[in-house]
Amino acid sequence: MENIFDDNYFMKKALQEAELAYDKGEIPVGAVIVIDNKIIARGHNLTETLNDVTAHAEMQAITAAANFLGGKYLQNCTLYVTLEPCQMCAGALYWSQISKIVYGARDLERGCINLKTKLHPKTVIKGGIMEQETASLLKRFFIERRNLN
Fold first, then answer.
1. What's the pLDDT tens digit per position in 7-25?
2. Most buried pick, 35, 40, 80, 115, via CB within 10 A?
3. Strand pairing of 30-35 and 38-44?
4. Is 74 exposed, middle or buried (0-12, 13-18, 19+ CB in 10 A)?
5. pLDDT mean over 55-82
6. Per-position b or e across 76-99, b if 16+ CB within 10 A of its CB
7. In the annotation, is 2 catalytic?
8. pLDDT at residue 137, as a whole number
9. Which of 17, 26, 58, 84 is catalytic?
10. Which residues contact residue 92 at a Cβ distance below 8 angstroms, ignoring those fewer than 6 apart?
11. Are 30 and 6 in contact (CB under 8 A)?
12. Residue 14, exposed/middle/buried by CB under 10 A (0-12, 13-18, 19+)?
């Protein structure tokens, strides 16, 4: 029997969050945190809305998941995020001890991989899930932004 709750399923949910950010004029990055095939937290970029440089999708989702679980550690949880985490978010994910990070598009300039940001030793990272769809939304956002200015 096929498990419908695969990486693509949850990345689609993260992409829905990214679209909410897009609609608000935020950089369209979305995230969900999952445990036992259940979404326990959602987040999308709110840096403009909250006037807060730390209000990235991952940070919103980490806080929501910790509140849901009643503790700061996200062991046995998976983060699905539409863009590879930046250094700040990767640092927060390190401290949360999240078990797995699944991202869509790479961020070659600000992403944690090229910046060699350490993740928790037990954290598994996997990329490229729905990469074209997640990258396409980001590209469309920045093209529209350039055309407005």
1. 999 999 999 999 999 999 9
2. 80
3. antiparallel
4. buried
5. 97
6. ebbbbbbbbbbebbbebbbebbbb
7. no
8. 96
9. 58
10. 58, 59, 62
11. no
12. buried
